[in-house]
Amino acid sequence: MTKQKQLYRKNLLLIIAFVVLISGILIAALLITYGLTRKYVVSEFSARTIGVLERTMRPYNDLFQKKIPEINAYQGFLNKKSASEYADSVFSNYRFVKDIDFYHFTISNRKQAIGSSNKNIQIALTGVYNFKPGKSDTVKNSVNVAKDNDDFKMMSAKVNSYILSADTGRVYTSEDTYNTSYDVKPGKISYINIPRPEELKVYKQSLKGNAPLSVYQHDMMTFHLEKRRLLIKNTRPELYQRISIKQIIYDPLENDEGENLYTEIALPGAFSGYKLYFESSKSFITNEVVRRFLPIAAAVIVIYLFVILIGWLIFRNLNVNQKLFKLQYDFINNFTHEFKTPVSVIKIAGSNLRTAETALSERQQKHYGKILDEEADKLNNLMNRLLSFTQLENKSIQVKKEEIKLDDFVQKYINTFKIKYPHFTLTYQVHNECYFESDPVLLGSIFQNMIENAYKYSPPDRKELNIDVDCQRKDVVFLFADKGIGIPKAEIDNVFKKFYRIQSQYNQNGSVGLGLAFCKELVNFMNGEISVKSKVDQGSEFKIVLPY
Ligand code: ADP
């Protein structure tokens, strides 16, 4: 008992240690995953700005790379009307273009009054207009004022140097062309169409002073951009709570009260004086961390439960094994005890017979004969039961089919037991006698066990058993009802288990807990069922149903 208690304590300690360890690992795993998820979200907060920038600037890039170079296609022949149409298509597609200045000018090898000049090349403004979105009346600016306009001066200087460099005979790269045609300044982009190769040839000759008079038309546009009209595309709303456009020098630290996370990315090109400014409150970021963390936590918890389940299954199996080991141990104990008693009785009787000094009287001889006979029978019975059990388990028993006259069969057992136990009240009824085929030896074993138990587990003044046999439609039902000590409810399922005994004064000797297990094996072997209803101190009723 103490040993078992110690074992139990050891097991309990082991289980507690296991659960604590696994739970510790679970908590550590949850904390680490939460920390990692938080780090990941915070680093994403800094890294994903590029995606927002890219989507926000897509219309700008589109304007810069596709829409503006369309001016080149007009080859300098844009007039007020076609330029206005072009401007309208820009306004309708690119809302951040505030207004467009349009300059129409000529380049010739004739001396002119207005414009930038070098030697024999003259650049002269012929028309200056300003287009605004939604306004059909175009503003015509004074050419005289416009010629001093910085944009125009700068662009005409660029064209001038481009033409001049034609003289050097160098080959133009696309980078040269790009640098000449575009000028990007904060808030505006200027574009001028590039002189064609044949024009350049004429200019080259003019520079040498031997070209015929030529005049070429050119166009220039300055697109004024408005940063407030730039549409911010928040591609990661789960990361960025607010995105705004701020001046590049804006310092978030001035407003920082430790409640928000900030990051920023500079806008390119004509918006380079500004930056995209991203803000999210710490609780907003925490929500996002939790949202990402929950599925991971669920997975970790499922793994945890799975490990606990496996642990529990292993523990349960070990427990079952331990119980089985105990059963076998009890069985060997009981059986040796069972064998020992008859063996020692035989031994004493034999020794008495051998050492008797005088010849035994006839009465003494009969007495010893009876003892030897009875004890040998006991041994024989024990061995038979053990043997049949093993045979049954190995299915090596052959069922003999023989007609059994139920009335005679029951009567025979009642008679035998009445002789064996004179104080045992045995009654029986057979309803609807039918043709029943079965193995009389196996059925007899069941009867013997049932009757023996009814006798054994009844107090001396209530040793009564009624056997009721009923042939029903498909089965024969046997009821063995006694008025014995009964079986507690909690034990009902156990009594049919091998070597299971409920310790009581009634089975102090001669019980191994095999009787009912043996009956169950037999009944199942005969394709039947066995069950019991019982009330403590009132009696038990065993029901056996066998098909016929
Ligand atoms: P045993 O060899 O101990 O009789 P059994 O397998 O025949 O083993 O019975 C198992 C247990 O079931 C017994 O220990 C006893 O407590 C209980 N039992 C069996 N038959 C009866 C009965 N008729 N009345 C009360 N208890 C019974």
Topology:
Layout: H1 2-47, H2 49-56, H3 58-67, H4 80-93, E1 97-108, E2 117-118, E3 121-131, E4 139-141, H5 143-146, H6 150-166, H7 174-181, E5 182-185, E6 188-192, H8 197-208, E7 215-225, E8 242-247, E9 260-266, E10 274-281, H9 282-355, H10 362-393, E11 402-404, H11 406-420, E12 425-431, E13 436-438, H12 440-456, E14 464-471, E15 475-482, H13 515-525, E16 529-535, E17 539-547
Parallel strand pairs: 12-14
Antiparallel strand pairs: 1-3, 1-7, 2-3, 3-4, 5-6, 6-7, 8-10, 9-10, 11-13, 14-15, 15-17, 16-17
Bound molecules: adenosine-5'-diphosphate (ADP).
The site of adenosine-5'-diphosphate has 21 residues, from helix 12 and helix 13.
Please give a structural write-up:
This protein has 548 residues and is an alpha+beta fold. Among the domains are: 63-229, no CATH class; 397-547, Heat Shock Protein 90 (2-Layer Sandwich). It contains 13 helices and 17 strands. Strands 1, 2, 3, 4, 5, 6 and 7 form a 7-stranded antiparallel β-sheet that branches. Strands 12-14-15-17-16 form a 5-stranded mixed β-sheet, with helices on one face. A hairpin with a 2-residue loop joins strand 5 (182-185) and strand 6 (188-192). Helix 12 runs antiparallel to helix 13. It starts with a helix and ends with a strand. It binds adenosine-5'-diphosphate. Adenosine-5'-diphosphate binds at residues 453-454, 457, 482, 484-487, 495, 500-502, 507, 511-517, 540.
Provide a compact summary of the structure:
This protein has 548 residues and is of the alpha+beta class. It is built from 13 helices and 17 strands.
What's the N-to-C terminus distance?
49 Å
Approximately what portion of the residues adopt beta-strand conformation? Answer: 15-25%
Mean pLDDT: 86
The ordered string of helix (H) and strand (E) elements is HHHHEEEEHHHEEHEEEEHHEHEEHEEHEE
Shape: rod-shaped
Radius of gyration: 55 Å
Low-confidence stretches: 112-117
Ligands bound to this protein structure = adenosine-5'-diphosphate
Binned, the helix content reads 40-55%
Multimeric state = single chain
Structural class: alpha+beta
- Number of helical segments with 4 or more residues: 13
Number of strands: 17
Main sheet summary: 7 strands, antiparallel
